[in-house]
Amino acid sequence: MTIHSSTGGALFETDPVTFINRMAGLGVEVAGVNCCAPWDASAFVDAVADFAAIRSGVMQLVVMPNAGGFQRIGNRLMTSVNPEFAGKLARSLSDRGVRLIGGCCEMHPPHIQEMHNYLRSRKVGEQSVIVQIQSALPPVGDAEKRLSGPFSRKLKDSQFVVSIESLPPRGTDGKIIQHKVDFIAGLAASGLADAVDFTDGSRGIPLISPGDFIHLIRDRLNWTAATGDRLELIPHFTGRDLNVMGVQSRLIGYHANRIHNVLFITGDPPKMSPTYPRSTAVFDVDSVALIRLAHSCLNAGVDFGGVALGKQPDPRTHFTIGAGIEPEAPDLKRELTRLQKKIDNGVDYIMTQPAFHHEPLAVLEKFRGQVPFLIGVMVLTSFDHAQRMARVPGVVIPDAILKRFSAVESLADQAAVGREIAAEQIRRLVREGWAGLYLMSTATTSGTLDVLRAGLQK
Questions:
Q1: Cβ(311)–Cβ(287) under 8 Å?
Q2: Element spanning 320, H or E
């Protein structure tokens, strides 16, 4: 049925549980909603999640929302729900147990295609090849990994570490490239950070590959093998783009080129403009499998087929291995199960998605003794930015923060509020004894150093 809320999901015109209970009494095997806004559909799923017939699988949920958020502009009805949003919504619904997903009004073929792409990324790893590992040497330990750079050294010495996320450039604009290089140089000179981590096709958009951008940075800043790097340069590494053979080749190349710290993620599906040729995601392996292959194979001196990486006495790589977690994932049980697998497979540190309040971090408490956590802090730049991020599945922004932004009018004042909130979060993380900080700053890097100074001040 079509079901609407009067207050953005809090109060429904028709009670979802009453509806599902009635359908169960009639023996219906599949029930749900169509032609309502995505947020109403999501709220409906949450409202009926604990119903016995849903939990047991006797009744399956179907969700087919419209694009929602319609506004009349001229003679057209427009919506802000783009294909990428539809894809993330589909993955979020799937994580919460919905088994039939589609779309209604203004959900067009590109929206359905992105739903397909995002749902396909959830099947990664289900048919991964199991590698039988036989190595005469154990995987390298902390002593070798301390040599990876200043970040790894402080991490292994249990000191507070700071990494700043950076997006590599998308195109050939020399000014943009130089701006990013200058920012990293300034960050190194400030002494406020230990590492910069570079996204790998963030949000499925083609950017300069992290490894290539690291080479460019070192060349521009004259960071050589003799001088060393003033910041540890960490590439994200996604299982989206390479098959198993390509994964091994890329990692061996990284190690040969002094890239010895890698953050493994499963990755977002490719998101291409209508004029760009369709790109197929590979997803031979997910982040859990990538960690295992790096730790138990390469760091033990053998390739993915168990063959020694060289004839020298010690052919082992010594990667410091990172991974991510989403503390507010819709399917938190699945997320925590995967976290334990990452720990068991040899991860050295975990970076979290942004946590704008303390409560989500409680789920990590039982794991803190097993692995260091770098807590994500995102620098919001405006009320509009905060509202947009609040609609991204997996990102939860408390109402109190939205109210702080709405209380000021000018964009400059809103940007100051965003920096103030980020600094407050950093100070809280330091007080609570977390291992480190993972700062997601703005694309322009504006205010990043100010946030770090204010947050890390004694």
A1: no
A2: strand 320-325
pTM of the predicted model over 0.70 = yes
Lowest mean pLDDT among 63-67, 273-277, 374-378: 273-277
Counting the structural domains of the chain, the total is: 2
Report the distance separating Cα 336 and Cα 326, nearest Å: 9
> Long-range contacts of range 421-425, CB-CB < 8 Å, 24 or more positions apart?
421/356, 421/380, 422/377, 422/378, 422/379, 422/380, 422/451, 422/455, 423/451, 423/454, 423/455, 424/455, 425/355, 425/356, 425/375, 425/377, 425/455
Tell me how far apart the alpha carbons of residues 391 and 346 are, in angstroms, rounded to a whole number. 34
- Give the CATH number for residue 197: 3.20.20.220
Place of tokens 């960690």: 291
Q: Does 43 reside within a domain?
A: yes
Q: Is residue 3 part of a domain?
A: no
Structural domain span for residue 357: 142-456
Residue 127 has pLDDT above 50, yes or no: no
